[in-house]
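Table S2 (text version). Query chain:
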Amino acid sequence: MERVRPKKQLGQHFLTDVRLAEKVAQSLSGWGNYPNLLEIGPGTGQLTRHLLHLPYRLWLAEVDQESIQYLLTHQIAEQEQMVGDFLRWTPTPCPDQANQACWGVVGNFPYHISTEIVFKVLEHHQQIGECVGMFQREVAQRI
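Corresponding structure-token output:
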């Protein structure tokens, strides 16, 4: 399995620009001093590779089994890091940090669920201290 193709039905569009991936990773400010970082839609791991070097415990929300297998096979991620579907995920509070954000969220957001991602981040704003993401232009204009 050398090549994973984006699946239109999942709204996937894989990030291929290495400089852009690095820029997104560097955009995370760490505001809120959160220990966990969740990447939504890692795809083939272009952004993930840059996030691995940051001082967070990295988690990955991915539903595409082909992408998950690619990430595991190429040692970009481990099974324990996978949380499945972001829209079904519930951010856990940090036990030792009451009233503080425990999570940051980042990603090249799938087109079909971009709006739901924004609403979920807002819904859990007490647990999610920061969100940095890329949207398709049409979605950004709607927001």
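Notes on Table S2: The first helix runs from residue 18 to 27. The radius of gyration is 14 Å.
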